[in-house]
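Contributing new records

If you add data, match the layout below exactly. Sequence lines come first and carry their own label; structure lines follow with theirs. Keep one chain per record. Anything else will be rejected by the validation script.
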Amino acid sequence: MTILTEAAEPVRHKSFTYLAKTALDVLYQHRVMSTAQLHQLLTPAAARPVYLLQQLNELRAAGLVHRMRAQGPAPGENPLNNPYLWFLTETGAAAVEEAGELPSRLYRVTPESVAGSRQAHTLAVNEAGLAFVRHAARLGHECGPLDWTPEVAHRIRDGQRRVEDDHVISDAVLHYVDLSHGRRKLLTMFIEVDRATMTTARLAAKIAAYGRLFEYVPQHPDRSRRSAASSRPAWQYTYPVFPRLLVVLDGTRTPSLPARLEARTADLYALTRANPRLSRLARHLQIGVTTLQLLQDRGPFEPIFTVLLRGTPEDRPPLTDLYLKHAQ
């Protein structure tokens, strides 16, 4: 299959605006974004992304970004539009790394990876991050364009197997500062976005891997040199407290979607409660399930979550009721 991207001849020695440089950083961290997502993230006060598109096209002319037509309407786009997806070229990624302002990522985005089967999932993860950014602005909290990082790998056992076998790979790790009541409360969240492309059992198994992460203690190669420090779980070297896990469900928007996601939530509740490790760790883990639409429409501080491992599903109104209340 031939992948077509639109790139122009490079323009050398071009100085760029702050917006253009920020767009480079955002695309480096988030891999690929639609025009609408970049507009909401970088120029939300503008009615239309005219100036943003001008800056993106200058970056494209300089050989720093590619653009590609999305496979159907991208999240946040008008279905009547023919939306573009934007991502960095090899030169663009190297320019961001040379600036040294962001942690380096080993991956490189290619036209083939953008056009691949994970396109819709990547854009849905962006939408989850954008929901936090929008509601933070509405509430006077802090969460910006670079406050979530996609695909963060956490080791859950010793060994040299495939990364997928030795790690749980979070769809995103998000940092948020809650400024309610005049206090700064730093929140860190693991985000898992599920578009119903895997079985509920597989999704429950990935949730269970976070229980393994909570307990995983790296083993020193020389067992005779173990110390008190070697008994610390690995996550404590990265996070001050174990992040809460938010599972965000989505799928093709049809009238039956709320009922289908409600059934998926109930299955997750039952499967995770039946997991011995998760049941044992219930008081240590905070795991909530919601839908992308509710997260976008109502925000993360509304009662939109089903809490796994604790209480009963009846503690929160069914998803269908939440949708109806929002529509009224």
